[in-house]
Design a protein that fits this description.
Helices cover 37% and strands 22% of the residues. The protein has 607 residues and is an alpha+beta fold. The strands form 5 sheets. Strands 4, 5, 9, 10, 11, 12, 20 and 21 form an 8-stranded mixed β-sheet that branches. The protein has 18 helices and 21 strands. The chain has helices at residues 2-17, 22-44, 86-103, 115-132, 164-175, 207-212, 218-228, 235-256, 285-297, 349-355, 375-381, 434-443, 455-459, 463-466, 468-476, 486-492, 497-513, 587-605, and strands at residues 50-57, 62-70, 73-81, 152-160, 181-184, 201-202, 260-266, 276-279, 301-303, 307-314, 317-325, 328-340, 387-388, 393-399, 418-420, 449-454, 480-483, 533-545, 548-549, 556-558, 564-570. The structure holds adenosine-5'-diphosphate. The site of adenosine-5'-diphosphate (ADP) has 27 residues, from helix 5 and strand 10.
């Protein structure tokens, strides 16, 4: 240190007295200031060794860590408690954690797609460091992902996207003769929207339906799906989908090992029967975890933080993919074929606007992974692929106004919760289609609205009991209130209590009379005279893109003349034509798995 001070004094002296320029003098002064700052900052931290604990608030609850310090250098971070979704949190607890340790700096970027987990984890480490009495918040640093890779890599089949469709396709490609299969995933973790979904899979004539005595048929599932999409879906694709859904459900349970209830089926809206197998743990997490395990078990290579940017053409066929990883460009040659399974484009507002101006910036939030930017569609269009029904975009009207996540508690709407605006007035029929309700909410000056219900309504379908985690989170976020009187609940959100009481009095009157002259509630209004009462603030969030790449029934991507592009297959939300104008609940996972399997098989066999 002494030598450095001596050096700076020498430079200052030279500049001042030995003819140095003004600029040089200024520069030297700022160097001295910076140096003194560094010294000062360094002095802030005492030399500390030991293990210190801290807690931060993640997406699903508290994250508790212990930080090991040796002479004020972080040597290890241990995760003591976490409730985060495993596959989403994985890069936080690996790459982000290792970057904090290697850089001895807690100010490391969040992992895209796992922001809340990253923030909670960082806060926990910061708290541990505070307890230790040290400040290791340096310059903002990007997460370091892995090392340098071979610039050219050769595989039989290259899959773009590690959501449900991509992982399924990779497994089937490997099992149908592709010796080497790689899945490229641009996010730091696998799962896409599939891991964020409810995980229910519609299928008619499954063994579960048979054992429960549900008299469903594949043909009825076909008709429901066509009707749900206003008869605009492609009947050939829809037939393939509904004919193969049951087999796929059995494959997912028996071969992949995903855990589904055997004595209960979900009856989603628009379906004639209860036909969706219900995930044991209420989400798509287990499905993705099992798909990933199975893919790795049979030798599929999965590369995360690897973003496909272009399709490579050679001799008139798709021969590989160019990708980027941490600034490095890598060529992935595909000797057999490429499968695009990169999901939809909900998270790409420019692309949404291009195809449907209604879905512009007024939709600030979405329920999906930030990876849903339509890359696969753009890449395929660049080599002449056709698209279909791109303007069919779906929003979910009752989502979390802070995070955009779909609110499970808001399912009280199906049991009698009413929708009111900031003035305390009803403004739309509560059981209207998703698009109608969303438009009505966005027409309100605040762009949000409220769901109002009582304890009795919350009991229907165990909605409140099953979603206590969400209730606690919404409470923390100030987005829900429970109160003994309607006036007290209204006060929390500054809704005029008199007006809300008047609205509810009318609802009670209509419930008794069995008519709703104001909005003609098709399910019949429910009495709201007995509390306790709940009010939740909600807003629409963009949820699903029905359109996408045009494929044939063999999952081959078609060009503008309707001819298959050699070597190119696609499956999942990146494709269009199956759901038509509107997708029914529970049909997304069924679609991505059925077509994912087909794409994997066809790509390996060259069908
Ligand atoms: P699907 O339901 O069709 O499987 P998902 O949204 O679940 O769709 O998964 C699509 C996956 O593709 C996401 O994990 C997303 O991050 C990934 N992805 C999107 N664009 C690219 C890209 N350019 N390169 C690699 N992966 C991508």
């Amino acid at each position: 240190m002494y030598n450095s001070i001596q050096y700076i004094i020498q430079v200052l002296y030279n500049n001042l007295y030995l003819g140095g320029t003004k600029m040089g003098f200024k520069k030297s002064l700022s160097t001295l200031a910076l140096f003194l700052l560094v010294v000062a900052c360094g002095q802030k931290n005492p030399v500390v060794s030991g293990t210190f604990e801290g807690t931060g608030s993640g997406r699903n609850g508290d994250i508790k860590v212990s930080v090991v310090l040796e002479d004020t250098k972080i040597t290890a971070i241990n995760i003591l408690e976490t409730m985060e979704t495993e596959d989403i949190a994985e890069p936080v607890y690996t790459a982000m954690l290792q970057t904090i340790v290697s850089q001895n700096n807690v100010n490391v970027d969040s992992i895209s797609g796992a922001t809340m987990t990253s923030d909670g984890f960082r806060a926990a480490v910061e708290m541990a460091l505070k307890t230790a009495g040290v400040n290791l918040k340096g310059k903002k640093t990007p997460v370091i992902f892995g090392g340098v890779e071979d610039a050219v890599q050769n595989f039989d089949v290259v899959v773009i996207g590690a959501g449900g469709a991509g992982l399924t396709a990779a497994i089937e490609a490997k099992n149908n003769g592709a010796a080497t299969v790689v899945v490229l995933e641009k996010m730091a973790s696998v799962g896409g929207n599939t891991v964020r979904s409810g995980g229910g899979i519609n299928a008619a004539e499954t063994r579960i339906q048979k054992s429960l005595g549900v008299p469903d048929t594949k043909e009825t599932h076909f008709r429901d799906t066509m009707a749900g999409g206003d008869l605009t879906g492609d009947p050939e694709l829809v037939h393939f989908f509904t004919d193969n859904a049951a087999d796929t459900v059995h494959w997912i349970i028996d071969y992949v090992g995903a855990e589904y209830l055997t004595d209960y089926l979900i009856h989603f809206g628009g379906h004639s029967y209860a036909r969706a197998v219900a995930p044991k743990y209420n989400s798509g997490e287990n499905l993705i975890a099992k798909l990933k395990d199975k893919a790795e078990e049979i030798g599929v290579i999965i590369k995360t933080s690897t973003e496909a940017t272009d399709l490579i053409m050679a001799d008139g066929r798709v021969a590989g993919v160019t990708a980027k990883k941490s600034g490095q460009t890598i060529t992935f040659n595909a000797s057999k074929s490429v499968i695009i399974a990169s999901g939809g484009f909900v998270a790409n507002v420019e692309m949404r606007k291009k195809y449907n101006p209604m879905f512009d910036e007024s939709y600030k939030l979405y329920t999906v992974s930030p990876g849903s930017t339509g890359d696969g569609i753009v890449m395929a269009q660049a080599i002449g692929a056709d698209v279909t029904q791109m303007d069919y975009i779906q929003s979910f009207p009752t989502s979390n106004p802070i995070t955009g996540e779909l609110s499970d508690i808001s399912f009280t709407r199906f049991a009698g919760a009413i929708l009111v605006n900031q003035k305390g007035n009803r403004f739309v029929e509560e059981l209207e289609r998703r698009d109608v309700i969303s438009t009505a909410i966005l027409a309100e000056p605040e762009n949000y609205a409220y769901l109002v219900w009582n304890e009795e309504i919350g009991k229907a379908g165990n909605t409140m009991a099953n979603n206590q985690d969400e209730f606690e989170k919404l409470t923390e976020q100030g987005l829900i209130v429970k109160a003994d009187t309607m006036a007290e609940a209204a006060e929390f959100f500054k809704i005029p209590a008199d007006q809300l009481n008047a609205t509810v009095a009318k609802v009670n009157e209509y419930a008794k009379a069995g008519i709703d002259p104001d909005f003609n509630h098709r399910g019949g209004l429910v009495d709201l005279s007995v509390g306790p009462f709940y009010i939740e603030r909600i807003t629409p969030s963009v949820h699903h893109t029905m359109g996408g790449l045009k494929i044939d029934v063999n999952t081959r991507v078609l060009d503008k003349n309707g001819n298959p592009i050699p070597g190119l297959y696609a499956a999942g939300e990146v494709t269009g034509g199956i759901h038509g104008a509107n997708r029914l609940g529970g049909n997304a996972i069924a679609d991505i798995l059925v077509f994912g399997r087909a794409a994997g098989k066809n790509a390996a066999l060259g069908i």
